[in-house]
Design goal:
The chain is built from 15 helices and 18 strands. A hairpin with a 3-residue loop joins strand 6 and strand 7. It is globular and about 75 Å long.
Length: 529
């Protein structure tokens, strides 16, 4: 009996949709499955400041009916506490049978995956960074270009970080900076040469956000609602591509919480799971399976299919957050602004360690996100922040993934257990980064608030990769140059699990480009079979 589909893609996030396009455009019959979780909280429709001043039901999207905003206090990122994103992260670990110790294990069961709640920062790996990939760099460059032009990216044409981010493909103009970031940018242009000697560079962060209208998606109007969800659809989400894919007659999208995979001799692959709506058990078959469920879920499914219980390394990026105060803006009124990273910084810490981060407007961020970092009682901290907020920006920072020491292993009962840890050098590097950034930003008229530099826990970065890395000669638990799991023909890993390295750069664009590249290679395999 022939399989129902040529390819089943498990997951509808950035990796899944990127793998799907080359396949469906070639006429291949594709089934894409995901957990089917849908948004159930109303998003703000007017600017953040207007909604905060006039919306009598703002508690629904600021706090949530079940006080969602008060949860996940151990995570630095506020996106994990936003009620409009509750469905993105809900029940992921439980459904995917994931346990963790000292690690914040996150993923998504929603259509579009984690791209429903990402920061939209994009970057391309340099030739040196791509040297770890067992494939020609030209293939990755072609796929980078394909993805950039599909999703829409706004970026600077030339500044201090243009070469560092190395973007391929046509892009839209950069989104306008707010007044605070404009001041930082102008001062850097005057003092950049001195700061460059200290290993500090500043420039625009390329973002997968439209600055100009493109079809049904509208250009950013700097409403400040980025964190809560953009009604204009300016921010890229894989759900945008999912809507396009549904127009292909050879593409089908279905709800399925995938539990296991099995290879049948001569019959391809069987995918087993449960429909989360009607709780019916279902099985689908295909010649190939492409795992795009996110690094954590993909790792459990792949290790289970292999019956591989030996520990594997899980890469993640040590991270930190901080607050900068700009005294020259004290007392100035708050104004609408783009809510995600406006300026990026790169700080060289040592020869093999570079920190990357960005700074954000405080407009669109709940005050409680700042109050908990100040060395003051909560009530006093709120009073202080009422005066300071309009003259502050908030920053984040990522270190490269080789500084993580996380391990994951499959337990005898089929669960994935993750133990989180950082390399012993991380505390020293974070201390060095805080001091370096404090000096650099002070030169630009921005002062790091005392005790605001806060390190995140392992996993809170949500930059996961490398559990099933691509190798030239893959061993058990590794993948080939085209992402095929060693020992299991026809099972391809197209998400972050197959990346052989994890730099400090945002890794979503690289995941998408690699998924596009792998799918093109898998397509040739289908045609030659």
């Amino acid at each position: 009996m022939s399989p129902e589909f040529d390819v089943i893609i498990v997951g509808s996030g950035p990796a899944g949709v990127s793998a799907a396009f080359p396949l469906v455009e070639a006429g291949v019959k594709v089934l894409m499955v995901d957990g089917g979780r849908q948004e159930d909280v109303r998003r703000p429709t007017r600017s953040f400041l207007e909604e905060r001043a006039t919306d009598p039901r703002q508690w629904e999207w600021m706090v949530g009916e079940r006080f969602h905003a008060l949860g996940m206090r151990e995570a630095i990122s506020p996106k994990l506490r936003v009620p409009t994103h509750a469905h993105v992260f809900a029940d992921f670990a439980q459904v995917n049978r994931v346990d963790s110790q000292g690690f914040i294990a996150l993923g998504s069961l929603a259509p579009g995956g984690l791209s429903n709640a990402w920061g939209c920062g994009v970057a391309q790996l340099s030739p040196q960074e791509l040297a770890a990939f067992p494939c020609p760099s030209d293939a990755m460059h072609d796929s980078y270009r394909t993805v950039v032009e599909r999703i829409g990216v706004s970026r600077s044409q030339q500044d201090e970080l243009t070469d560092y981010f190395g973007m391929q493909g046509e892009a839209q103009p950069e989104i306008a900076l707010d007044k605070l970031h404009t001041a930082l940018d102008q001062k850097y242009r005057r003092h950049g040469a001195d700061l460059l000697q200290q290993g500090f560079r500043l420039g625009r962060f390329p973002v997968a956000v439209l600055s100009q209208d493109r079809g049904a998606r509208k250009g950013c109007n700097r409403s400040g609602n980025c964190l809560f969800g953009c009604e204009r659809r300016s921010l890229y989400s894989a759900s945008e591509d999912l809507a396009t894919l549904r127009q292909f007659p050879n593409f089908r999208h279905a709800r399925l919480q995938v539990e296991s995979l099995r290879q049948d001799a001569g019959q391809g692959w069987q995918v087993y799971g449960e429909d989360p709506q009607d709780r019916q058990r279902k099985t689908f078959s295909a010649r190939q399976v492409h795992l795009a469920a996110g690094t954590v879920a993909t790792t459990r499914l792949a290790l289970s299919a292999l019956k591989h219980e030996a520990p594997v390394r899980l890469l993640s990026c040590p991270t930190a957050a901080f607050i900068l105060w700009m005294p020259s803006f004290l007392g100035k009124p708050r104004a609408d602004a783009f809510g995600y990273g406006q300026l990026a910084f790169v700080q060289t810490l040592r020869e093999d360690v570079t920190a990357l981060g960005s700074t954000f407007s405080t407009v669109g961020l709940p005050m409680t996100e700042f109050a908990r970092h100040l060395p003051l009682r909560r009530r006093l901290a709120v009073d202080v922040l009422r005066s300071l907020m309009s003259s502050c920006v908030v920053g984040n920072m990522f270190l490269p993934g080789h500084l993580s020491a996380n391990q994951a292993h499959l337990t005898p009962d089929g669960r994935l257990h993750i133990r989180g840890a950082y390399h012993e050098d991380v505390p020293t590097l974070l201390k060095q980064a805080a001091a370096s950034l404090r000096r650099a930003y002070a030169r630009l008229g921005a002062y790091m608030l005392p005790m605001s530099f806060t390190a995140g826990q392992p996993g809170g970065d949500i930059h996961y990769a490398g559990t099933l890395p691509m190798r030239e000669r893959p061993q058990a638990g590794e993948t080939s140059a085209i992402g095929e799991l060693a020992g299991l023909d026809g099972l391809f890993v197209v998400d972050g699990a197959s990346l052989p390295n994890l730099t400090e750069k945002s890794h979503t664009l690289t995941i998408m480009a690699n998924a596009d590249r792998i799918a093109r290679a898998a397509l040739q395999r289908l045609h030659s079979a």
